[in-house]
Amino acid sequence: MAEKLTNEQQSAVDSRERSLLVSAAAGSGKTKVLVERLFSYVEREGANLDDFLIITYTRAAASELRGKIAKALTERMERDPGNYHLRQQMLRVYRADIKTVDAFCTSLLRENCHLLGEDARGHALRPDFRVLDENEAEVLRGRVLARTLEDFYDHLTSGGTLLADTLGAGRDDSALEQLVLELHAKLQAQPYEDKWLDAQRAFWRAVPEKIEDTPYGKILLNEVGRKARHCKGLLQRAAQEMCANDALNQKYAPAFLDASYQLEALEGKIAQGWDAARGVTTAFPRLAAVKDSDGGEMKARMKGLWDNCKETVKGFAELFAASSDEAVEDLRTMAPAMLALIDLTADFSRRYNEEKRRRNAADFSDQEHEAIRLLVAENGEPTELAAFVSTRYREIMVDEYQDTNEVQNRIFDAISCKGENLFTVGDVKQSIYRFRLADPRIFLQHYNTWPPLAAADEHESAKLLLSRNFRSRKEVLDATNFVFRNVLSREMGELDYGEDEMLRPGASYAESSVCGAEFHLLDLPTQTGEHRVRASEAEAAFVADYIRNMLTSKFPVQDDKTRELRPVREEDIVILMRSPSTRLLDYRRALESRGICCAADAGEDFFASMEIAVLFSFLQVIDNPRQDVPLIAVLRSPLFGFVPDELAALRSQQRTGDFYDALLLSEDGHSKAFLAVLRSLRDSAAHLSVRELLSEIYRKCNVLGIFGAMHRGAERKENLLAFLELSEDFARAGLQGLFDFVRTLREQLASGEAAAMQTTHASSGVRIMSIHKSKGLEFPVVILSDLARRFSNMDFQSSVLVHPQLGLGPVCVDARRHIQYPTIARQALERTLRREAKAEELRVLYVAMTRAKEKLVMVHTQANAGGRVADLMALSDCPVLPEAVDSGKCMGDWIMLPLLQRSEAGALRAFAGQNSEGRFFTEETPWTVCVHDGLQFAAPVQQSDAAAEERAPQREELPADFAALSYRYPYAEQTAFPAKLTATQLKGRAIDEEISENTTLPPRLRNLCKPKFLAGKTALTGAERGTALHLVMQDLDFFCEPNEQSVRAQIEAMRAQRKLTEEQAKAADVHAIVRFLRSDLAARIRKSKQVEREYRFSLLRPVRDFSSLDADDSVLLQGVVDCFFEEDGELVVVDFKTDHVSRAQLDERAEHYRPQLEAYSMALTRVMGKKVKEKVLYFFSAGEEVRL
Predict the structure, then answer these.
(1) Whose CA, among 72, 134, 269, 408, lies 20 to 30 Å from 760?
(2) Cis bond leading into 822, ω under 30°?
(3) How confident is the model at residue 235 (pLDDT cuts 50, 70, 90)?
(4) 1140 pLDDT higher than 50
(5) Beta-bridge partners for 464
(6) What letter does residue 921 receive in the DSSP assignment?
(7) Which residues partner with 574 through β-bridges?
(8) Which of 458, 575, 555 is nearest to 515 (CA)?
């Protein structure tokens, strides 16, 4: 029998002829309400299921919702089997429009794209257009942007030059490309991109005279005023509290009051404008000394509060560093660059749209924007098409409405009979997809302005709150309510958490005394020594110990079916983290070392497993065999067992075209057998469902037997059977054919929306997952860990920030001084975006806490946590002031800020040095609060010796083989020879040279000296002077006059071109260069028609060419030839040497370099195909050449 609806749920089901916003708290049964409302139309008013448009935000959610509607329909037919109208709905349930927004827009465009007309280049979207997946779209954007930037550089304006040289500066175009792509991506949430860009152009073309007249100045002045009021209130309240302590009242209180009066003056000046507020000085002098014995515990808390306010006010000085005129001037300086960026992005967007039209393709955002063009007229009213579409649907139902953006909201308004038949369900406290351009302000606007349903007039839009939670125990709900009524507010979180928003228990649970919320703080003190325990390592060990204790103590949870208490199982427990990827290894290791099974991200593991990847590839090949990657994956799989040599032989028969073509040409029996199976399955696919086709594959290819015989075979067989169930789910969702199945699953995998498949092995252990993935799920026991993870700053690193309402916020780049600093626009945007990001983090925390059904455990691990808890103690309150919430650096801070006010948090307060002072309270449902030394959880779990001996297999004692100790690896010499060799390494390594061949060389010691910036100006070393001379010889004109004036002129030209530093130019030996230019060698070079300098080469040579090793290996020889020239059809190799040698030492030193010259000659002979007739060393110090 169906469960009875609550009064609020029944009101949501029964309300008609108005737009209704149902704000459904976590676990309040919003999907149930939507289904019941749908059937109330069907059963009471004779409507059909396909009379409604039901919108969800993922394909998986649409499939799940269709399944629930089908199940509800089946239950109703069982109760009333003679109802003909219900039997009709069995056919209509799979035709009903239960789809995502983009799926609705796709069908709308295919039916009506002829109304869009052609673009400027004469291209139009045709009904058979293709929807680009994200990978295709990304590649196409890259190509279009590259062409756009080429034209941008070809027609640079002054603004474009400023943009390229400042905000887009870098080694390549990547910085500018990133700016354009980021702005273009943010534009996709705007209903009308051109209007938004036009508004930005208008601002940057005429920046106001005063900074307070800009939206940025108003935001920053408002923030200063808000923080000033916050600090003033803290200081005044603290001064009043210090009246109870004579020492603090005399020494601290006057300073606190004086600072509060200065902040009050600042508040008054803010209304007068930027420069007036800038002129107010707020001083926080050093507090007078108070003995600890006189100040008591209050002293530390007051000192912490003073320092906190001082730090806040310090930020005011940084903000007001520029006057109004200077701030405006910064904006005007960057205005040309901003206008160029806007124009460049608009040009890219136009070209990208034209290219998609040329290809008859569209991406996901295209479909929504084109739908607006079809449904909304230029005056904002619905078009005739919108009116027609609205008549097709009795009501538009939108699930997860909190994840809507403005583009989608315009579409809903246009097709909902002017808002009279729009039913929206959601919970803004669970809006955690702002990174996907979701805009919770749309939900909040309706929530804050629409009247409650009971007070609304007839046909007036209204809201209805569902606050009764049917998921969790009262203890879990009380803990969640306690945290969020104290930290969530309209000022910090975009929503007040009042009585209406409180979660109220609606589920029935057996009595239990152990289900209270728990908070555990793990402190990691300063560590010394080589092995230092990481926070994630200690936290994982603590969590694993906690779970093991739960399992061994048989912690009671209520069974869903029997409603009786039973011992907790591993699969009842989930570990939630903001981002588990970096900590997953530590948690797995900790759990498995304690004998606890764990399953992490089962959905991803499922589709990445070998057996599922092979089967999905096989289905793709059956659908279309001309796909090389899936085809080769199937051939290489255990099902068919082609080895790489076979695949290479197949490809060698036909080097071009698809691999399938090469397979068809093969006469090999292995290939023919595969083709026979493939042919049979392709024939079967024409008339079998996907499930039947999979069953046929399993039978023909012995899939279960092959994968079941592999390692973890039982798990693999479960995955294969679950894949069969997945195909049935797709069929129930209306995707009957192989093509639809393959295409939809491929898109879901690409977008990360594939349903997480639960098999027995995947759900038999402790789950580890991200909070985002847990949304919509529930677990008896939730362990919320990694609470000390700092909030990310990645979204605020770009040189230009983008906000949908405030526009663009660039840094100001001073090219002359090579510095950049934030403009007022950027500071305003960054503060706004940070506040919005923290509001979303609060909602993420709400989602995490509301996943628990019976037990909620929170774990926070931090190094030297005592100092942080003391800082939080100074700001702790109930409720916590919004600015104190804003100062939180992680989710753990937000939990501790109100928790420190509870009597159960005595351990936390004592840890921070605040033992018993103050008035703390206890609520009906107590918490358990503990502080632990994190180091005690770092040691690995050791098995007892007795247990280890008992489990260890008995092995026969083997005799010692002492001969093995004298074993020597026979190829030890080869391991010592490098795989890559440079020609300069060969100097002094003649074949017959015997220099300590088998001895160990003493280590080379590096001389330590002061860095150059500390040593002051010093002369170049001999090596550096040699380098300078080589640099000159690279670019020296050998045909110049052989005199010092000419050479110096060339060196000066090289310095001016920055080919030489000033020091190198001065160090170059002009006299030696002139002597070379007058030499016979230089004369020979000038006569040659082919002269090459700094010639680089790389080639493989047998190792025997350079060593006496008896091996067939090759070595890569690399080098750079200083100079070579052609003479009489042969080559002459020249190597310049700057060694300081006398004439008597020339022959000896030349022999030292012989191997190097031999290597050059060998390389040039191979590369140039000409004989080297002569090898010449030219020594500049002696002015002599030596021929080898």
Answers:
(1) 72
(2) no
(3) very high
(4) yes
(5) 22
(6) B
(7) 767, 782
(8) 555
